[in-house]
Specification:
By secondary structure, the chain is an alpha+beta fold. The chain folds into two domains: 167 residues, no CATH class; 106 residues, OB fold (Dihydrolipoamide Acetyltransferase, E2P). 57% of the residues lie in helices and 18% in strands. It contains seven helices and ten strands. A five-stranded antiparallel beta sheet has the order 5-4-3-7-6. Strands 8-9-10 form a three-stranded antiparallel beta sheet. A two-stranded antiparallel ribbon has the order 1-2. Helix 2 runs antiparallel to helix 3 and helix 2 packs across helix 5. The protein is elongated, with a radius of gyration of 31 Å.
Length: 297
């Protein structure tokens, strides 16, 4: 008799399809959000140009609309192209490489934008028969146009890098959330207690009561829910002893119990702020941050 009908578990292929669908939905939402942001930015830029042409040049609405399109449409075309270039290649370069690339791209952007404005402004309704005649700006107007190009290029990079940093922070938060969910599982293999010699006598400290151990000169301080105890051992001795018992060396001066961690958040400089259930927060070193992430994988 076939008993396989009693259980209905999704196949590996079906799970893979579900993951792809979820990833697709998340990518679509990110694309929609970024597209809305860019559209709003370009619309605001177009409005600024339109108002300038209306009140500074005293143009008609039709003339202001044409002048606005002549300036903004090239920005949109070049800006989208530069966005793809920066997101695909530049953000992965070292800082000095990014600075050099942006210096060159800013020059290219301003000059290409200027040329496209000249070409667009030269179009007339009878251009097929009369042709196109490019009329360069006066020297002062050219310099002003190039200065605008540099400022607009900087604003475009602000949009690109702002969105990129937002995505990186979101990914970091998701990884930390997943890491914190896994931390108690890895901490389940802790030993029951440790014995310390404090003030001339041995004391038994349950590891469930211990939150973290910190170096204090030639001594170490064991911080527990019942109080603080000092002993004459080094922090490295405890680190070696508790290596397989759910403890993480987040700093050369701090050893924390994974099960006592209730939260962690980036400090913005490649390190994490580790929050313990005792109310204590400890800034992990960069190597300690890596150790925390490795522990929770």
């Amino acid at each position: 008799m076939d008993t396989s009908q009693g259980t209905h578990r999704p196949s590996v292929g079906l799970l893979a399809v579900r993951r792809e669908l979820v990833d697709g939905v998340l990518k679509y939402r990110a694309f929609k959000s970024e597209t809305t942001l860019w559209a709003a930015a370009f619309a605001l830029l177009g409005f600024a140009y339109f108002m300038q042409f209306q009140f500074v040049r005293d143009e008609t609405i039709l003339q202001s609309t044409r002048s606005t399109l002549v300036n903004v449409v090239p920005i949109v075309l070049i800006g989208v192209s530069i966005r793809l270039l920066v997101r695909r290649y530049l953000v992965n370069l070292p800082l000095i490489g990014q600075l050099g690339a942006h210096f060159l791209l800013a020059i290219v952007f301003t000059h290409v934008w200027y040329v496209l404005i000249l070409v667009s402004a030269s179009f007339r309704l009878d251009w097929l028969t009369s042709g196109i005649t490019l009329s360069p700006f006066y020297e002062s107007a050219t310099l002003w146009q190039l200065l605008q190009g540099i400022v607009i290029y900087a604003a475009i990079q602000g949009l690109i890098y702002g969105r990129w940093l937002q995505e990186r922070l979101h990914e970091t938060e998701l990884k930390l959330e997943e890491a914190l969910q896994r931390a108690p599982e890895k901490a389940s293999s802790e030993t029951a207690a440790v014995f310390v010699k404090s003030e001339g006598e041995f004391r038994q400290i349950d590891l469930e009561d211990l939150t973290h151990i910190e170096a204090n000169g030639d001594q170490v301080l064991l911080n527990t829910k019942l109080g603080q105890f000092s002993c004459n051992k080094s922090l490295s001795e405890y680190a070696n002893k508790l290596e397989d018992s759910g403890y993480i060396r987040i700093h050369r001066s701090h050893l924390v119990r994974a099960a006592a961690i209730i939260g962690a958040e980036p400090t913005g400089d490649g390190r994490l702020s580790i929050h313990l259930d005792s109310g204590t927060s400890i800034i992990a070193s960069r190597s300690g941050t890596r150790a925390f992430k490795d522990f929770t994988r």
